[in-house]
């Protein structure tokens, strides 16, 4: 159940949280897929000037959580991170990184999403897999 009514413009209004703090910008969304960019700057680097591994995980978790949210009944359910891992392959000092998350499994109670983060030359920076718990909202 993909919510095709959600637009990139509406997703990019989600600014008063971690998304806005690190400068994530949503670029594309479709069934089982979501893409965003994130700057490599003073908000997202570690003290030695490289993209912080935690910032990569923030991008991955954001993509997977929002991706899952777009595939559930938002009136009665919420998508929350249950487990995430990340392998940091290459470093980046500046520019933008791009994350693309794809659904691997979308069940009734869990989703599994994989995110590939690349630099501006399309070189793999980080690969992450996340399990998203689909829980019923308390009323």
TrEMBL record:
InterPro entries: HotDog_dom_sf (IPR029069), PAAI_dom (IPR003736), Thioestr_dom (IPR006683). Gene3D superfamilies: Hotdog Thioesterase (3.10.129.10). Keywords: Hydrolase. This is Thioesterase. The keyword Hydrolase applies. It comes from Flammeovirga pacifica. Pfam families: 4HBT. It comes from the Bacteria. Belongs to the thioesterase PaaI family. One of its GO terms (cellular component) is cytosol. GO terms for molecular function: 1,4-dihydroxy-2-naphthoyl-CoA thioesterase activity. Residues 48-126 form the Thioesterase domain.
